[in-house]
Structures are given as structure tokens and as C-alpha cells.
Amino acid sequence: MDTREQVFERFIDEKLGLLRGTAMRILGDSADVEDAVQQALMFAWRKYEAFRGDAEFATWVTRILLNVCYDMVRERVRERDVLAEYGESGVTPGGDSGEETLLDRLDCAVARLPRIYRESLSLGVLSGKSPDEAASILGCSRNTLYQRIHKAKQLLAKSIREVSYEKA
Fold first, then answer.
1. Each residue of 47-71: pLDDT tens digit?
2. What are the structural domain ranges in the chain?
3. Which of 50, 63, 41, 37 is nearest to 136 (CA)?
4. pLDDT digits (tens, 9 = 90+) for 21-51
5. Domain covering 1-91: architecture
6. Which fold has domain 94-168?
7. Is residue 100 left, alpha or beta, with left meaning phi > 0 and alpha meaning psi from -120 to 50?
8. How would you classify residue 53: left for phi > 0, otherwise alpha for psi between -120 and 50, otherwise beta?
């Protein structure tokens, strides 16, 4: 049986790039990515004895990473809301011109999606993972993953149309 050190060493050698890629697709900032990956690995290290082996070790750590990333996103939103409330932001999406780009609207729309749809979209479409891997990480069937992605796309399209209509 491998020791905890051996398990983590092998895992980091094999999966660190995938962890970073997953975090980057959610966070979009390399410094935040490094923080999130480090936090997830530290949490997994501390809670290693709690790992039951019901899923693969990589799936368990990826689930921890997703939770860390979404905690960071929620914190960003709280900070942005506080800054906006006090008028200290002064920064508008889309650059200095104040015009919001389609990509900015898409980012905002993805951030407003319910967590289950954000996760499904991120892991099922953007992560490069196979549908079976993504479904396993999310704890659902492949069919459920596809349904969630379809629903996420519908919600995104509706959200972007509403924002576009409001701007017109």
C-alpha cells in the first residue's frame, strides 16, 4: 500500500496540469489559480484519512478544487459588490470606453448561472475532460451532464438576449 506521500507525489506529477487548467477556466487569473490549487491540495492532504475511495483520488481532489474555486468566485463577487456600493470601483467591463463586449456579457452570464450549471459547463465543455470523467467528478450520469449543459446553454442565451435588449 502506498503512503500518503507517494500518493500525492504521483498525483501531482500526473495531474497538476489538469488541476491548473480546471481552475484557470473558472478563475481566469494565474495567481488565483495557483492559490486555489495549493488550497485544494493542502485540504486534501489534511483530510486524506477521510478519503473513502468511493471515487478515484483525482476525482476527489478535483471536487475539492471546484469548491475552492467557487468560494473564490463568490468572494470576488462580494468584494465587487461592496466596491460598487461605495462607488470606489470606477472600472467598467469592456475597458475604458465603458462599452461592454459580448465576452464580458458572457462572463457575467456564466457567473450568474446556478452552481450546478456552471460546474457542468466548466467540466463538461471547457475542461477537456471526457464526458465520463466530468460526470464522475460531478457525481452524475453522462446523460444528466448533457442535460445540464443543454440547460446552461439555454440560460446563457436567454441572459445574453436580455442584457442586449436592455442596452438597446
1. 999 888 877 899 899 999 999 998 8
2. 1-91, 94-168
3. 63
4. 889 888 888 889 999 999 999 999 999 998 8
5. Orthogonal Bundle (1.10)
6. Arc Repressor Mutant, subunit A (1.10.10)
7. beta
8. left
Distance between CA atoms of residues 129 and 131, nearest Å: 6
N-to-C CA span, the chain: 64
d(CA 11, CA 7): 6
137-167 as b/e: b if 16+ CB within 10 A: bbebeeeebeebbebbeebbeebeeebeeee
- The answer to whether the CB of 113 falls within 8 A of the CB of 73 is no
With a threshold of 0.70, does the pTM exceed it? no
CA distance 120 to 72: 18
φ, ψ of residue 54 in degrees (nearest 5): -65, -30
C-alpha cell at 20: 491548473
